[in-house]
Each structure stands twice: as structure tokens, then as C-alpha cells.
Write a structure and sequence with these properties.
The chain has 360 residues and is α/β, with parallel strands linked by helices. It has nine helices and 13 strands. Keywords: Membrane, Transmembrane, Transmembrane helix. It is found in: Membrane.
Length: 360
């Protein structure tokens, strides 16, 4: 039997070794600076935790722009931060969501991925939307084009749009959240400042925000303001490292240039060897993060709202083709301990602040 030539085998082994070495070098290059810079991130978050109580009393609105005359909220100076929103038939939920993230969080651009709403959400007027229409682009998908895991399709489309229209949109970070999820920055830093901190670490391509799941607050019908009406949340379960609470779940803000594909609706695979981290610089490799912390970043999840709205949610379904049932309602209403969570009230319309008490 003839033996294979030695030189070809040696060459193949050499090439394979070289490729592995290059991959390791890329990983180590990305990690270079991570250890040295992440200490600064952790130091910042630690000092932030000490300042939360005082900062919340005299905090300026966390956006990169300036206030207009009279102290009204300012507008984002650019599209550094954007939101990809998969949504269907939530016409009444959209205005407060847009207003909060545009004026309070400094989100400059919104990709509204309309999964077959009737009527289409693009028919809403600028007055109904509550923010400038040029900060929004609507993309409508006919119901016949709905696929099983539509949310993934819509997320991938958002990235394609952002990359293809970079000259016009020019967005660096994109948040993948739902219309019942509100970003908050409890400490003295703005959302932009926090993301700019993480941008200084080359290895970081995504940031994971822990949920703060709200209960119904006893409301039976839709309330004028989500932020004002729901001030009770499920317990974080710190005694068991958060293992018995859905507040372990995260949603993500991802660098547009480093997005690869969704791992699930909560977390993402990134290009190269880039990583996602929590607010303290801790690596997050899944849809869960513990211990649960929200000193710098939080995601308030108004998962059920009033009983009437939850019934609408069950009938509407989701972009992941799964339907909520009363078991989810019971999980948040009766199976988890409840705690007060009034921190979002500082963003509530003054006229609505009085509705924060529990309804019968």
C-alpha cells in the first residue's frame, strides 16, 4: 500500500496550526485592554451605586442634547442610539414608549417593524406619536408574510437597514426591546455616557440590561400612563442569586457593526470574539444575568399591565409565534412576592403622577 506523501501532510498541518494561532491572536487582541479598562467600568458603577439616592433627587434628564428654553426636555443631538421595535396592534402603547426613549433616554432613531398591524402604525400622526416623525421609520410586513420566528426576521432587517443607510441614520448602538419595556438609567450617568464607556473597550459589542418586571398594580382597565400607573414589581430573590425570579432575564443593546444574529429575543451572537457584558462589565453569555443589578442600567418590563390589556396581549400573540396564557399572569400576580418600585415615577407626566396608587 502506498503511503501519502510527507510534504503535503506537513503543509496541511502547518496551515491548520497557523489558522488556529491567528484565531487565538484575534481573541487575545480583543481582550487586550479589557482587563485594564473594565476595572474603570466597575469603579464607575460602584461609585454610581453610592450616588443613586442623591442623584435621583436632582437628576437632569439623561440625554445628550440640551434643554430648550423653559426647561422642557431636549432632543437627542444625533442617532448614536437607536431602537429596533417589533410591534403589532399596539397603537395605544407606542406614544409613551417613543416619548420616554426619545426625550428621556436620548434615543435618536426608531426602526418600527410593524408586523401586520391593522391599521398600519405608519398612519399615526406626528401629534399621536409625540416625537418628531423624522426620528421614526416605519416598515410594514403584511400578515401573509409572517413566519414562525418573525422577531428574528425583523431584528435582522433592522441591522440591514441601519448598515445600508448608515450615511443617513449613522447609528452606533441599537436596543432590541419591546413596546412594554422601558430603559432607565438610575445613576448620574446618561445612557449615552454609559455606552460610550463600554465603547472604549474593543472587546465589548453588547450590553445586557436586567428586567424589572412590573405587576398589574391591581388595575383592571388601561391607564393613561404606564409609567405612572405601575409601581409594583416582582422580587429579585437575592437570597438565591435571582434563581426564582424572571428578573434574571435581560434584553440587549448591541453595536450595529458587531451584530451577527439573534441567539434568542434577549441576547445575540456577535461577530469575531466580541462579548456582551452587564452594567458592571461582567460577561453575559445568555438571556439570563445574575446577580441582578440595576445601579447604572435597568429595563422596566410592564409585562402584564391591567387585566384588560393582558387579555388583549393574549389575543394578539407575539412575533415569536407563542401565545401568553393566564399562567404567566398568575406567575407575576400570585406566585412571586411583590415589592414597591416607584423609581420610574420621576419620568411620569405630572398630571398622571397621582394615579400611582393601587386600584381596586
Amino acid at each position: 500500500m502506498r503511503s501519502l506523501p510527507f510534504k503535503p501532510l506537513f503543509f496541511a498541518a502547518f496551515v491548520g496550526t497557523l489558522l488556529i494561532a491567528l484565531m487565538v491572536y484575534q481573541r487575545d487582541s480583543l481582550a487586550a485592554g479589557y482587563g485594564s479598562v473594565i476595572d474603570k467600568v466597575k469603579t464607575t458603577s460602584a461609585s454610581t451605586a453610592e450616588a443613586v439616592a442623591d442623584a435621583s433627587k436632582s437628576m437632569s434628564l439623561p440625554f445628550g442634547g440640551s434643554k430648550s428654553e423653559g426647561g422642557a426636555p431636549g432632543v437627542p443631538p444625533d442617532n448614536y442610539i437607536s431602537v429596533c421595535l417589533a410591534i403589532k396592534d399596539q397603537r395605544l402603547d407606542l406614544p409613551e414608549f417613543l416619548h420616554h426613549h426619545y426625550y428621556n433616554m436620548g434615543v435618536g432613531h426608531f426602526f418600527i417593524m410593524d408586523d401586520g398591524s391593522e391599521p398600519p402604525l405608519s398612519e399615526m400622526t406626528e401629534e399621536q406619536l409625540t416625537i418628531p416623525r423624522d426620528a421614526i421609520e416605519f416598515h410594514y410586513y403584511e400578515p401573509a408574510k409572517h413566519v414562525r420566528w418573525m422577531q428574528y426576521t425583523l431584528y435582522n432587517a433592522c441591522i440591514k437597514l441601519a448598515r445600508n443607510e448608515s450615511a443617513a441614520v449613522n447609528t452606533t448602538w441599537m436596543a432590541f426591546i419591546d413596546a412594554d419595556e422601558y430603559i432607565d438609567t438610575p445613576g448620574p450617568q446618561t445612557l449615552r455616557e454609559i455606552l460610550e464607556d463600554f465603547s472604549r473597550v474593543e472587546a465589548i459589542g453588547g450590553v445586557s440590561l436586567n428586567w424589572r418586571v412590573h405587576t398589574s398594580n391591581g388595575h383592571l382597565t388601561r391607564q393613561p400612563s404606564t409609567i405612572a400607573a405601575y409601581t409594583e414589581c416582582i422580587y429579585d430573590d437575592p437570597e438565591h442569586n435571582g434563581n426564582n425570579t424572571n428578573n434574571q432575564h435581560v434584553k440587549s443593546i448591541v453595536k450595529v457593526d458587531l451584530f451577527k444574529q439573534p441567539r434568542d429575543p434577549h441576547s445575540f451572537f456577535l461577530l469575531g470574539n466580541h462579548i456582551s457584558v452587564g452594567e458592571n462589565g461582567d460577561v453575559v453569555n445568555s438571556h439570563l444575568r445574575s446577580p441582578i443589578t440595576r445601579d447604572r442600567l435597568a429595563l422596566h418590563h410592564y409585562a402584564i399591565k391591567s387585566k384588560a390589556e393582558y387579555e388583549e396581549k393574549m389575543a394578539r400573540g407575539s412575533a415569536m409565534s407563542n401565545h401568553k396564557d393566564w399562567e404567566v399572569w398568575d406567575t407575576y400576580e400570585t406566585k412571586n412576592p411583590h415589592v414597591p418600585c416607584p423609581e420610574m415615577l420621576r419620568w411620569a407626566p405630572k398630571s398622571a403622577a397621582s394615579q400611582s396608587s393601587r386600584k381596586p
